[in-house]
What we know:
The complex is a heterodimer. Chain A is α+β, with helices and mostly antiparallel strands. Chain A is 24% helix and 35% strand. In chain A, the strands form 4 sheets. Chain A has a 6-stranded mixed sheet with strand order 6-7-8-3-9-10, sandwiched between helices. Chain A is elongated and about 80 Å long. Chain B has one domain (20-281, 296-566): MetI-like fold (Orthogonal Bundle). In chain B, strands 1-2 form a two-stranded antiparallel sheet. In chain B, helix 5 crosses helix 7. Chain B is globular. The model of chain B has no long low-confidence stretch (mean pLDDT 84). The A-B interface holds A 50-52, 69-79, 81, 83, 85, 87-89, 98-99, 102-103, 146-147, 150-152, 156 and B 1, 5, 468-469, 472-473, 475-484, 486, 490-491, 494-495.
Amino acid sequence: MPLIKLMNVTKRFGKITALDHINLSIENGEYLCILGQTGAGKTTLLRIIAGLLEPDEGDVYIEGKRVNKVPPEERNAVYMFQQFALFPHMNVWENVSFGPVIKNWSKDRVKNVTSEVLEMVRLAERKNAFPHELSGGMQQRVALARGIASGAKILLLDEPLGALDARLRVDLRTQLRKLVKDQGLTAVHVTHDQEEALMTADRIVILRSGRIEQVGTPHEIYSKPQSIFVTSFVGGSNFLEGTVVEVNSSGSVVDLRGGLRIKVADTSRNIGERVVVAVRLEDVSIGTMEKLGENNLKGVIESTVFVGGSIEYQIRLKNHAVISSRILFSDTFKDFKPGEAVVISFHPERCYVFPYPRAGLLKEIEAI
Amino acid sequence: MGLRTKSSNVISKLVVWTTLGAFIFFVLFPTFYLISYVFLRWPEVQLEVFENPIIGDENWRQILKVLSFSFRLSLSAVAFDLVFGIPLAYVLARKRFPGRSLLEDIVTLPLVIPTSGFGFATSITWTTVAGIGGWLGLGTGLVTNLNVVIPFLNVPIVLFIVHVALTFPYIVRTIETKFESIDTTFEIASRTLGASSLTTFRNILSPLSIPGIFSGAVLALARSLGETGASLIVSGVSSTASIAIVRWTSEFKLATAAFMGSLLVVIAWAIILPAELYVGRRGRGLRISYQLPISIYRKIMKFERFASRRLSRLKDGLPIVVVVLTVIVPIIVVLNSVIFYWSADPYTGKVQGGVVYQLFGPPNYFSILQQATVTSIIVALTSTYIAMCISIPLSFIIERKWYGEIIRTILKVPLIIPTSSLGLSVLLLWGSSGFNLVSPGIWLIILTHIVFSVPVIVESIIASYEGSNIQMYEESARTLGATAYNAIEAVSLPLIKGGILTGFILSFTRSLGETGATFIVMGRDITVPALVVNMVEALAIPAALFTSTYLIVLSLILLVIIRILTRR
């Protein structure tokens, strides 16, 4: 039985539908990331699980029990705010022991649990410090300790790393996952950072305008994106518009603008259908020879961007479309200069084919 | 789980309903009773005001006369405030210099000092030899008497000065807050794009802060229209609308007083409501578009460039001179005079004219003062305590219920209606012509003070509530296992403690210094500020000097306490 189950959950704020018939099951011990842009409804979803908001329609179940009307304090699901919400008038010890004290546990138990949890997050020495005397990373640990000490089995993390420096954010996300797994907790982690989600989650839920776009393991989300939006939001991609002109057992052929023609492995589209072909940047290789592999297209290097471990090229094709390619530095790496004539290539297996979106391609990939 | 939730629901409903009931009973009724009184007894009002068998519509003409006088006075005071207040607000908001917080305190002082004492201090500063006149060696006051008027405006000069001093803080502090809320990056951008500081002010800062300037001016105007305590002392032969209410009430011309009082309430509403609506639309500045020939525009820019450089000292200095003259000097004069008049009148040498004789001699003002102090403190403590009991839950209701904003707007009214109207309203509501439950005296004073104490405390709590992200902390506590009640007790209340304490002191101070309403409802009991008025009317000047000093020192001590409490 899933630990948390949402059935047809809908929430509206005035005319805005923040969540639109969400169905989702979260297993016990799972680390789930909810990934979406600002305003996608991520926080609303989290607040509904916490009991801080009531859904307008649909049901929320925790441990098989319908909890729509159950107040937050009786759900054993602790909500962690981006700003940590450590009570400013209480020191670290009082903050961490807040849950045990308020739940009227025995004195000994309060003391044991609090000191144990403080040891765990390595903050036992700072137990008399006030929140404002601690660094951001420490505050985050206190907030986690406070949640764990309260006996909660579910951690609801609302952008838990958002208020921290970039470096710290990267260090802490693996620690966060480890802590949750070590303690046998269930975590629902809301973020807009795709890298964070890919690195920490067991499963990712992609939320867009109040609807679930795709659910899957990080690998599934990356390698089998089910929509243009997911392809673009997670990992990024080139998008080529075209029309299917041939479908056979080994794949299909798509006509691009300007007489260019490419092969894709996908066979699910019909002849004559207008499609968008997505190719990840790292799947586009560049060479100077006439023939590189399959799908050889001629073009000219337009610009280059140094990214760090890799380099990104923008290549203008004959039909004036621009394709980006990301090449990792290696021993065989050969640099190209702007203006150089090249040939690009990508494998038909690495092409994702989607029907052309009704609202236009830009609508799907814009504002990311 | 069900039972706990249910019983806490019942308790929370009970708290909400009790609080709303108390709010309606103690604040809403008294505030609006005056207007309904006029409607309910319209024939009586009509007979007395418009169709008096003996004097015809003389009372109506009197009303029009005092109203027009009041408006002349208030509008000119506000105009003066704006000219000097905007630069001062700018300096306070944007510059950091030693003594800045002291200057801020001095500007705020008139909000705290009992107005009757302050009015008395101002009157001796300008009209007697003990004041500026004496310092300049004139042998008389700088202004011959209280009835000397400013040409064209036809407003007595000392009255004007008092109104400027008492309304200045509203303008300065409101505009200062607005300026502070505007990001300095706009100004920096404008300056680096080549505009002088004055041009920047005209083009960037002033359009963005129009709502703040507007609401400051409205507050100041309402305050000036309603000012009673100081005006009673310095008005001389002229009469403002608020004073007229006090006078007519004591002459038992209740219908006329009530009619005029409700006119003032309606006017205060009519001014404040549109202003609230306008200012409520946040983040919108005002842009007046005008097109000037480029040559004139260049000249303006050139002047502004010049003025920015050469006249900035003047701009920074003059407002400070105004503050010093209207606030500091009167306080120094009154303190100084007490020493001069201590044992005898310094000019005639008569001991009867000395403070000691009047306090401890045959007039025996000291025992009256003692009694008045006890009354004042009982009133201030009781009314503040009751107001606290209403205000704390009411603040939570305002923050959490959909009708909170409505209550908050209603609460603005007792703060801006003339206190004498308020006093009259309370008198008519609870007194012999209304429910006949409470007769004039200490209890009626307490009931009156509760009406304006509640909004004072609520505003202070709400400021603290909104400044400390209570919702997040409470939600956090809830998910950690705290019930709604626990969360309020363990988290929210400690977090807004500062606001509650500040509200307490502010309300206490306000109650201690209130004159206009108290004067109407006090009956045989008397508070200290009202005593000052009586002393001045009885020409017991040395006793009034002492009592004013006493009040001023008391409120200064309270101000220091507020400062310590609000410092983080």
